[in-house]
Design a protein that fits this description.
alpha+beta, 9-stranded antiparallel sheet, 2 helices, 9 strands
């Protein structure tokens, strides 16, 4: 279960990194993200994410901003209805990752993100080839307002487990506290 949580968190961070470029903000409320990692060992996962404008911006600037600081090159092209993001980034251990991401749809109701990354160099990752490729498809849709008892930053995993990404900081994560509410 812990391994699955790490994989899902990493996938969400990749999603956030893609959103760190100049994209419109997502509509506040409850989003459902269906993630397919195209890995036969990991079935598709569904996560619900409660956001408001402040937490969405904070999540993107902290997760996506950190990713952007490691990128030597990143280009974003907007076509009719799509954003295409290509990047070359250095990650932990000196590995280089070339990523091609296409985001289509409407960030106020539903969107699809397809991301292909190819890793080269760096230390081996257990269970992955040295020149590992990762393919992630995220289909997201806005479900409505966040539910009772939910607060911005909450992520509800497919098994019902709920965590708040801002609470991860208190458990030794690298996440700073949430933005202050006015």
């Amino acid at each position: 279960m812990r391994r699955l949580f790490v994989i899902l968190t990493a996938s969400l961070l990749c999603t956030s990194a893609a959103f760190a470029v100049d994209l419109p903000a997502r509509k506040p409320g409850l989003w459902e993200l269906k993630m397919n990692l195209n890995n036969p060992k990991i079935p598709p996962q569904v996560v619900q994410q409660c956001i408001d404008a402040a937490t969405d911006k904070q999540m993107l600037s902290n997760f996506g901003g950190a990713a952007q600081r490691t990128c030597q090159r990143e280009t974003t092209t907007r076509t009719s209805g799509e954003y295409v993001i290509d990047s070359v980034c250095t990650i932990a251990g000196g590995a280089t990752t070339n990523t091609h991401t296409v985001i289509s749809g409407d960030l106020s109701s539903a969107y699809t993100m397809r991301s292909n990354a190819k890793r080269q160099g760096g230390p081996e990752v257990p269970g992955r080839p040295a020149r590992g490729e990762t393919h992630i498809v995220v289909e997201a849709k806005w479900l409505g307002p966040c539910g009772p008892g939910q607060r911005p930053g909450d992520m509800i995993m497919g098994n019902g487990m709920k965590i708040n990404i801002f609470d991860l900081h208190q458990r030794g994560g690298t996440r700073p506290p949430p933005p202050r509410q006015p």
